[in-house]
Amino acid sequence: MKARLPAGLLVAALLLTGCGGGGETASTTPKVGLVTKTETNPFFVKMKEGAQKAAQANGMELMSAAGKFDGDNASQITAVENMVAAGVKGILITPSDTKAIVPAIRKARDAGVFVIALDTPTEPQDATDALFATDNLKAGELIGQYAKAAMAGKPAKIATLDLAPGITVGQLRHDGFLKGFGIQEGDPAVVCSQDTRGDQARGQTAMENCLQKAPDINLVYTINEPAALGAYTALKAKGRERDVLIVSVDGGCTGTEAVQSGQIAATSQQYPLKMAEEGVKAVATFAKSGQKASGYTDTGVTLITDKAVAGVEAEDTAYGLKNCWG
């Protein structure tokens, strides 16, 4: 009859199997998880790049996962559960469904995992330990202020190309735009609203639908630059690309180039690399000392335009291209 190792020694033996000598092993290197909405959006590609860089700099191992599409809550739940089982010290997450992900986050925190939301706050926001993000209300407000000034008193016929119901980042940008423009939800100046999920093809379809409903639209707010470029394509097909003002949010390189070329009038630039780097640093601090960051950390937003207007602080596209992502 073979002798059996005690359970603890058996686990240790399994962990050490195949490990070379010297340096930290997989069993001793603290892990940090990153869960993004998708792995194809350039915003999240840059976020992962920032997390990987920061993990290496702080002696951590990065585990990463993403939804199959924007809004894929099931895959994010699975990723969180797998990361908790793998023993991560902390998880950075951009929630696809800001309410439905909360029970999985609660279980992770109950297991002692430090959870930080990146870019998109959960509902409620304190479902995570901390939030590292753009001030999305301010991002919307900046382009709303810009649009108001750029219209120079001309009556506005506005189309809002939004994200999707129940996603806080989309609602905050939408609300910020209205606030910056000086109107409230339900104002008759908003003649059409469509959801795009931030997708270029959906943005084009949404703009086509809005033009059918209200052919005299002269101002378009979009949740992000892919939606803005879709709107531009639809407007160009109707010969309207020169007389409709498009404003957006994100500040990716493609979007900033679209501002430079005049397809988009202005965009609010955010910084996903910084979100991820600061998030990983916070997890590293927790792993070493047990000290947790808390509350909201603003990772910055800048209005980018080559057609500045009085009273709205902005940088030009040369600055935008130096600081863009994607």
Brief digest:
The protein is of the alpha/beta class and 326 residues long. The chain has helices at 7-16, 42-57, 73-85, 102-110, 136-151, 168-181, 200-213, 225-237, 253-261, 272-289, 317-323; strands at residues 31-36, 61-66, 90-93, 114-118, 130-133, 158-162, 190-195, 219-222, 245-250, 266-269, 295-298, 302-304.
Topology:
Blueprint: H1 7-16, E1 31-36, H2 42-57, E2 61-66, H3 73-85, E3 90-93, H4 102-110, E4 114-118, E5 130-133, H5 136-151, E6 158-162, H6 168-181, E7 190-195, H7 200-213, E8 219-222, H8 225-237, E9 245-250, H9 253-261, E10 266-269, H10 272-289, E11 295-298, E12 302-304, H11 317-323
Parallel strand pairs: 1-2, 1-3, 3-4, 4-5, 5-11, 6-7, 6-8, 8-9, 9-10
Antiparallel strand pairs: 10-12
Helix pairs in contact: 2-10, 5-6, 7-8, 9-11
Explain how this protein is built.
- With 326 residues, the chain is α/β, with parallel strands linked by helices.
- It has 2 domains: 29-134 and 272-293, Response regulator (Rossmann fold), CATH 3.40.50; 136-269 and 303-323, Response regulator (Rossmann fold), CATH 3.40.50.2300.
- It contains 11 helices and 12 strands.
- The chain has helices at 7-16, 42-57, 73-85, 102-110, 136-151, 168-181, 200-213, 225-237, 253-261, 272-289, 317-323; strands at 31-36, 61-66, 90-93, 114-118, 130-133, 158-162, 190-195, 219-222, 245-250, 266-269, 295-298, 302-304.
- It has a 6-stranded parallel sheet with strand order 2-1-3-4-5-11, with helices on both faces. The chain has a 6-stranded mixed sheet with strand order 7-6-8-9-10-12, sandwiched between helices.
- The chain is elongated and about 60 Å long.
- Its main location: other.
- This is Sugar ABC transporter substrate-binding protein.
- InterPro entries: Peripla_BP_I (IPR028082), SBP_2_dom (IPR025997).
- Residues 32-290 form the Periplasmic binding protein domain.
